[in-house]
Amino acid sequence: MDERTAGRRKAIRKAQREYRWEGVECLPYKEDERALFKAVTRQILFSDPDLAGELRYFEVAPGGFTSLERHEHMHGVLILRGRGKCLVGTEVRAIEPHDLVTVPAWTWHQFRAASDEPLGFLCMVDATRDRPQLPTEAELAELKADAKIAAFLEDGAKSG
Amino acid sequence: MDERTAGRRKAIRKAQREYRWEGVECLPYKEDERALFKAVTRQILFSDPDLAGELRYFEVAPGGFTSLERHEHMHGVLILRGRGKCLVGTEVRAIEPHDLVTVPAWTWHQFRAASDEPLGFLCMVDATRDRPQLPTEAELAELKADAKIAAFLEDGAKSG
After folding, report:
1. Counting C-beta atoms within 10 Å of the first and last residue's C-beta, which end of chain B has fewer, N or C?
2. Are B79 and B119 in contact (CB under 8 A)?
3. CB-CB neighbors (< 8 A) of A152 in chain B
4. Is A30:A67 a contact under the CB 8 Å cutoff?
5. CA of B97, closest CA in chain A: separation in Å?
6. A130: which chain B residues are within 8 Å (Cβ-Cβ)?
7. Considering only CA atoms, which of B40, B70, B66, B38 is closest in space to residue B134?
8. Residue B119, SS3?
9. Contact B4, B17 (CB under 8 A)
10. What does the pLDDT look like over B90-106, one tens digit per residue?
11. For chain A, what is the radius of gyration of the CA atoms?
12. Which residues on adjacent β-strands are paired with residue B28?
């Protein structure tokens, strides 16, 4: 059991101010520099050799957005704070606290915070999972052929 | 894909009043009649053939409690509303919104709502898991030999 796992094995980790948790590191969103994203942090709430899933908390600062990506693994998302919009496949939807967002396998998705409020969400994934794919220029052009997706990608937060 | 799975595959399921969700059934806590519990409901937020984990929302009415049990599978719990106390192993701790509770394998645990407020929490588990064990009389006596556990089990909510 390494130090991080040991920390996670504490029976109780208290919630702290501003969506931080005792013993939970606030991490950069991605190590992957290819991805385009803005103002996102990541906290790993549950990750353990005895768990098949992981639960993470992501927070997108006002006006920020996660990377536009797809992958084989599925996401189960619960909005915890703030509001914004998300793209899932070809759907653009407003999101607010406690809404559930399902991202099936191989589905393009992105989360955007409103311009005046952070957007925080829990995301459950399989512990063992594939790496995200980013859109090629051709795929991006295809997505943007849909006017509502183009508007979302160009100005999702402000129009929220 | 059956009807329930299809519902869960909707991209967005809106949060509704009072910690209910669009398309999510409010279920009895347990089908198992052996277990002693009081005033608990269960909603399955994410459960899918493509997910190794499940995310459920449990709500314990004021003064209610979940069953005292243990099992091989692990729990990752995030308190969503209200307050109360929990027993994890030999620890009795107060819990409030956004606290994280880790229940390792084979650890006795129970959640109790305060007498004046419901306690609602998310619980992540493996989709494939063993059935809970309830304490034998001897095991219960052993737990109650610890005065703080005895107080928790007899009157956890009121002393909260």
Report:
1. N
2. yes
3. none
4. yes
5. 7
6. none
7. B70
8. strand
9. no
10. 999 999 999 999 999 99
11. 16
12. B41
